[in-house]
Amino acid sequence: MDCWSSSLTVDEEFEKLVIRMNPPRVTVDNATSRNATLIKVDSANKRGSLLEVVQVLTDLDLLIRRAYISSDGEWFMDVFHVTDQHGNKLSEVDVAEKIQQQLGPRSYSFRSLTRSVGVQAASKQTIIELTGRDRPGLLSEIFAVLTDLKCNVVAAEVWTHNSRMASVVYIADETTGLSIDNPERLTKIKQLLLYVLKGDRDKMNANTAVSLGSMHKERRLHQMMYADRDYDMSDANSGSTSDRSKPLVTVENCEHKGYTVVNLRCPDRPKLLFDTVCTLTDMQYVVYHATVIAEGPEAYQEYYIRHMDGCPISSKAEQQRVIHCLEAAIKRRASEGIRLELCSDDRVGLLSDVTRIFRENGLSVTRAEVKTRGSQAVNIFYVTDASGNPVKSETIEAVRKEIGLTILHVKDDANSKSPLQESLIFSLGTLFKSRSEKILYNLGLIKSCS
C-alpha cells in the first residue's frame, strides 16, 4: 500500500471515530415559526455532510422553504425550515427520530452517500444504467428489448436533457422474480441495449452498466448525466426550454475571504436544493456557508464554496463551467410536456406495450418514473411530440382510448409551469447581501464581502 492510500485509510478511520463520538444531533422546533417546522442539525463535520442531510430531508418528502448552513471548521450546523408536500407544518412527533436514524453513525459512509430513505434495495433486482443520445421512441425500444430477454422491469427512472438520456432500470427475471446474475445473460442484455442506445448517431457516447448493489437512483442519475457532459451546450440544441424559464446563476470570488460565491435564482420546485447540492458535490466543491429562500414561486440560493484543497475558483472558464453545470442540474428534472399517469395491474411487457403505443402516436417521453407497488404498476410519463412541442389533445385522447381511459390519466403538473417573470429580474448580489449575508454576518460566521 502506498503512502497516499495509507494516509487516506487513517483519515477515514479517524473521521469515523469522530462521528461515533459526536453523533449528529437533530432537534425539531414547531413553535418558532408560524408557517414551517424548524429542523436543526449539529454534528462533527465531514466530507459530504450537507448532501447527506439534504438527501435525507428530500427522501422524507419534506419541502425546504429556508435553509441556513455553516460548516466552516470542524463542526456542521444547519437550520432548515420545512413543510410537508401540502405546505403544512410537520405533525409527526417522530420526525426527529426518523432523521436521526438516517444521519446516525451507522448510516455515515466516507466513500458514498447511498444509505438513505430513497435508496433502492436491489437484493432481488439487477440495476441497469443507460446513457446515450435521446431520440423519439428510444424508451420503447429499450423496454421491448428487455421484454424479449425475459426481463421484468420492476422500477425505472428516466431523465432527458440537452439531447442526452440517462436511465436507471431495475429488472428481475420474468420467471423467478429474482435478480439476474448469470454473466453470459448479463453480457447479452448489455450488448443488445448498447446496440439500441447507439442507433445511427451515437456510436461513441452510449454506455450501459450493470450493478447488483444498492443505490440512490436520483443521486446516480445526476452523476451519470454529469459524466455524460449534458451541460455541454456545444454538442446539441438547448432543447425546448424557454429562455424565460432559464435559471439565473452568477459566480464571483470574494477574494479577501477566499471564497467563491455562487448565486442562483429559478422557479421553485421540490428537490431543487438536492439537485444543486448534488452538482456542487460531484464537481468536488465544499460548501462552507449557504442560504436558501424558497417561500414563493421562485427560489434563491447562495453558496460560499471552495475546492476540496481549500482554494476558491481561479479562472473565468471554471466559473462558466459551474454556471453551465448548475443550469443543467436544474433543468434535468424539469418536466417538459404533458404528465400522464398510468395505474393498472402489473404484468410482464406492460411498459413495452405502453411506450410502443406512445411511439406509434408520435409521442416522445422526456421523463419517466416507473414503480411497482405490490401487484400494481404506478407509472408517470411526461410526453411531447417528436419535435418537443406540446401534444394535441386529440392525440392524447386517442392514446388514452387505446391504453384504457380508466388506466391512463392526464394530470396537471404545477412544477413544470413556473416560468421566470421578466419584471422580477434584478441583481442577485443585492438580494443576498440584504438577506443571507446579513444573517451570516450577524451570526459572526462571515464578514461582509463588499
UniProtKB/TrEMBL annotation:
The keyword Repeat applies. This is ACT domain-containing protein ACR. Binds amino acids. Pfam families: ACT. Keywords: Repeat. GO terms for molecular function: amino acid binding. Signal peptide: none annotated. It comes from the Eukaryota. SUPFAM superfamilies: ACT-like (SSF55021). Residues 38-115, 127-204, 339-415 form the ACT domain.
